[in-house]
């Protein structure tokens, strides 16, 4: 792991000195859990800002988008995290890598680390993802997206919030536990996965090849969504349905429309007809924002190169986010009916393909232990009343819930993921780690 610019080697060694020696761990039972929690919380606050910035600076400098966008994958970022864990003396990780010939390393890394608790049969997991989206239009950024900029409490860079903040909050807690030599009531597990931004192949590979790793009795937190006030706990997600439409007709000269079959106008007609899906599926659920299913045309992928050409093929995509009660099969059937109508009226052929179809998953009950512990921890740390909500965006929480694994999605967020000048708050990183500490120990006094 390269040294951050503003921390020289002696300073970094000073930051790590509390964990490099190997004294025997202390059982939290030797003190009450409130005292143990306060010791860990104090360890988080000590030089926490410098550690947060150092970690973010290292992670920001490593591009980790997937091969679908021409990226190198996550292996170099995984290596940086693993190097940091080894410096803590935590090198006993479980690798669950997924082969992928499209990336230079040949694998998409997934790995888990478990710090044993007194009850080794249960684990509080923090699951974060190593990949980011590409920077997009670099001209829209104030600075280099791969060079961390720190302005006051904010750190700017691609991936800063999605999901470097999730990675860092887990690493901070692991460091604090090692430094205090305390054994928590439950195991603390850190699981780092690849390919969250595209297909969730990382978490699904873990679920398939290591079904013993995550258990229904575990507490699973995914720091990959939230609000600035820390109130929002996401316990359910809309189903994702991406459709690809290929409209086929006959190419011709712009001055001779009678000799062509214009697929662009037919595609426009179909797009407008599909706006009617909002009326066809009007159900609402106030847990979500927006409360209804959404059906939006997004990407136009193929056409013609010249203004004086009538296109004979037009390709476009739709992004649909369905409430859990709306069956994807019914939506696809209605889409096919509208495509058939356009074929009949315009003389084109319309091919509809499923580009991505997320699993249907139950929501995590608000009285599940992971939710109740998280609610209590948020109240203790922030002094606010948390709210159980759903989200239209997709995380791999749905994959976990589909496997019978209750989980909660939460972080204290600026909400700038995927945007130019994506940013993360230093204090949010620290307080997220404090909230998880309170979940782990179920103790601690409210912070003033």
> Would you state the CATH class of the largest domain?
Alpha Beta
Helix content: 25-40%
Low-confidence stretches: 1-24, 443-448
* Structural class by secondary-structure content: alpha/beta
CATH architecture of the largest domain: 3-Layer(aba) Sandwich
What spatial order of strands do you see in the largest sheet?
A: 2-5-10-6-11-20
Report the β-strand fraction as a percent range: 15-25%
> What is the first-to-last residue Cα distance?
36 Å
Alpha-carbon Rg, integer: 24 Å
Number of separate helices = 12
In the CATH hierarchy, the third-tier topology of the largest domain is known as Aminopeptidase
Overall number of structural domains: 2
Instruction: Provide the residue-averaged pLDDT.
Output: 91
The CATH fourth-level homologous superfamily of the largest domain: Zn peptidases
Annotation, overall tally of beta strands: 21
Question: What can you tell me about this protein's structure?
Answer:
- The chain has 448 residues and is of the alpha/beta class.
- It folds into two domains: 9-224 and 411-441, 3-Layer(aba) Sandwich (Aminopeptidase), CATH 3.40.630; 239-357, Alpha-Beta Plaits (2-Layer Sandwich), CATH 3.30.70.
- It is 34% helix and 23% strand.
- It has twelve helices and 21 strands.
- It has helices at residues 9-20, 33-45, 48-60, 75-87, 160-180, 201-209, 263-274, 277-280, 328-346, 369-382, 397-402, 426-441; strands at residues 26-27, 94-95, 98-99, 107-108, 111-115, 119-129, 149-151, 154-156, 182-183, 186-193, 219-222, 232-237, 239-248, 252-253, 294-302, 309-310, 313-322, 349-357, 387-391, 407-409, 423-425.
- The strands form seven sheets. Strands 2-5-10-6-11-20 form a six-stranded mixed β-sheet, sandwiched between helices. Strands 15-17-13-18 form a four-stranded antiparallel β-sheet.
- Strand 3 and strand 4 (107-108) form a beta hairpin.
- It is elongated, with a radius of gyration of 24 Å.
- The two termini are 36 Å apart.
- Residues 1-24 and 443-448 have low confidence and may be disordered.
């Amino acid at each position: 792991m390269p040294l951050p610019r503003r921390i020289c080697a002696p300073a970094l060694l000073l930051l790590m000195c509390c964990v490099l020696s190997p004294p025997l761990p202390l059982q939290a039972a030797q003190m009450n859990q409130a005292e143990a929690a306060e010791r860990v919380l104090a360890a988080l606050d000590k030089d926490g800002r410098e550690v947060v910035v150092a970690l973010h600076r290292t992670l920001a400098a490593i591009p980790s988008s997937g091969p679908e966008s021409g990226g190198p994958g996550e292996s170099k970022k995984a290596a940086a995290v693993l190097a940091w864990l080894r410096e803590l003396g935590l090198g006993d990780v479980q690798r669950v890598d997924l082969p992928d010939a499209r990336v230079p390393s040949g694998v998409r890394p997934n790995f888990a680390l478990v710090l044993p608790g007194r009850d080794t049969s249960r684990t509080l997991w923090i699951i974060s993802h190593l990949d980011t989206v590409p920077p997009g239009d670099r001209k829209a950024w104030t600075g280099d997206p791969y060079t961390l900029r720190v302005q006051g409490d904010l750190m700017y860079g691609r991936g800063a919030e999605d999901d470097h903040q999730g990675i860092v909050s887990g690493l901070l807690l692991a460091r604090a536990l090692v430094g205090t030599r305390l054994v928590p009531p439950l195991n603390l597990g850190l699981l780092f996965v690849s390919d969250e931004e595209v297909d969730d192949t990382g978490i699904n590979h873990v679920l398939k090849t290591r079904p013993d790793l995550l258990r229904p009795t575990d507490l699973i937190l995914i720091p990959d969504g939230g609000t600035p006030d820390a109130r929002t706990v996401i316990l359910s997600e809309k189903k994702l349905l991406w459709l690809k439409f290929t409209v086929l007709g006959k190419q011709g000269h712009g001055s001779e429309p009678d000799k062509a079959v214009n697929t662009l106008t037919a595609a426009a007609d179909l797009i407008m007809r599909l706006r009617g899906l909002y009326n066809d599926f009007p159900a609402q659920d106030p847990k979500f924002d927006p409360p209804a299913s959404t059906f939006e045309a997004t990407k136009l992928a193929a056409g013609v190169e010249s203004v004086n050409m009538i296109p004979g093929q037009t390709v476009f995509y739709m992004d649909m986010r369905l409430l859990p009660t709306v069956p994807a099969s019914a939506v696809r059937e209605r889409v096919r009916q509208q495509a058939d109508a356009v074929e009949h009226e315009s003389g084109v052929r319309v091919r509809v393909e499923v580009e991505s179809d997320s699993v249907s998953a139950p929501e995590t009950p608000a009285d599940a232990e992971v939710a109740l512990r998280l609610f209590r921890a948020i109240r203790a740390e922030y002094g606010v009343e948390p709210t159980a909500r759903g989200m239209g965006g997709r995380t791999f929480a749905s994959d976990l819930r589909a496997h019978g694994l209750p989980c909660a999605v939460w972080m204290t967020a600026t909400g700038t993921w995927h945007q130019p000048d994506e940013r993360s708050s230093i204090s949010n990183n620290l307080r997220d780690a404090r909230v998880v500490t309170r979940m782990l120990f179920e103790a601690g006094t409210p912070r003033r």
